[in-house]
Amino acid sequence: MATYASEIYQTARNYLGMIKFSHSIFALPFAGIGIVEVLHWHGFMVPSTAVVLHRIIACLVCMVSLRSAAMGFNRIVDRHYDAANPRTANREIPSGAIPLRDAIIFTVFGLLLFVGAAFTMGLTVGLLSFVAIVLVLGYSWTKRFTPLCHFFLGLAIGIVPSAVWVAFTGTISWIAVYWSMGLALYIAGFDIIYSCQDMEFDKDKGLHSLPASMGVSNALWMARISHLLALACFVRAGIEANNGIVFFAGLTIVAALFFTEHYLVRGGRQDKIPVAFFNLNAWVSSVVFVILLADRWYQAIVQ
């Protein structure tokens, strides 16, 4: 019994490792941002508390299932590159911890769960789920033909606030668009930084990334510009949505996190990339969500 339980535990760890479940902290606040804002502006359109709870849960299920499927798909199509790269050779598929067939089954199940959850929110949302699948899975191929792959990744994940808005209202708003733009640029910026670790490998294998195409120094400048534009989009989203002092004061924390991240990796210091990526970036999206929620709560009290 103990051996069987140990095997289940290890299998679960392997799958959670394959999809980098711990990185969900980057992504879940994106859905939270969309939910907070759409309910603030359009809560009156939702007929009951039960419907609100259903849509919140369905959006979160969509977020987790599609992200998990996307990570599984990425590991599947990149398995040969991962096996050849010393940094990634111990990943679950190339190391044999997860058989290829099982990874495919897991990915297909995630996609089916995503589509099913989307259709529970209406025919339009369900049909749009296939567009999201093409966009999100398509990112995995972009590194083979364009150094702008980082921005495709940003777009694939950054659409979440806009997707939530559509799921709740059937429409789109500039508030959601600015949030999506900002989050897309935020993701692209840290993905550029992360990819600096594989510059030589990408060049050797003919893969495209900004570090491989223009060198680490220039790529880091692109990451700085991307994060500066992301911050500008957050500000613009706040202006569009009539956010208050709590939100805009809180954005100074986000700016400080961006500055610290880029200070750590200045000059291409690759040994600092894990700290910048796994620690500071985990905080940015969470801080943005918390200050937005706090601002809405404060406005509700003072009004």
3D structure, described in words:
81% of the residues lie in helices and 0% in strands. The model has no long low-confidence stretch (mean pLDDT 87). The chain is mostly helical. The protein starts with a helix and ends with a helix.
The ordered string of helix (H) and strand (E) elements is: HHHHHHHHHHHHHH
Going by CATH, the homologous superfamily would be UbiA prenyltransferase
Question: What name does CATH use for the topology?
Answer: Tetracycline Repressor, domain 2
Helix content: over 70%
Percent in strands: under 5%
Compute the separation of the termini in Å.
59 Å
Secondary structure category = mainly alpha
CATH class category label: Mainly Alpha
Inertia-based shape = globular
Question: Topology of this structure?
Answer:
Layout: H1 2-18, H2 24-42, H3 49-77, H4 79-84, H5 92-95, H6 100-119, H7 123-142, H8 149-158, H9 160-169, H10 174-195, H11 199-205, H12 210-240, H13 245-264, H14 273-302
Helix pairs in contact: 2-3, 2-9, 2-10, 2-14, 3-6, 3-7, 6-7, 7-8, 8-10, 9-10, 10-12, 10-14, 11-12, 12-13, 13-14
Q: Short description, anyone?
A:
This protein is mainly alpha-helical and 303 residues long. Helix content is 81%, strand content 0%. The protein has helices at 2-18, 24-42, 49-77, 79-84, 92-95, 100-119, 123-142, 149-158, 160-169, 174-195, 199-205, 210-240, 245-264, 273-302.
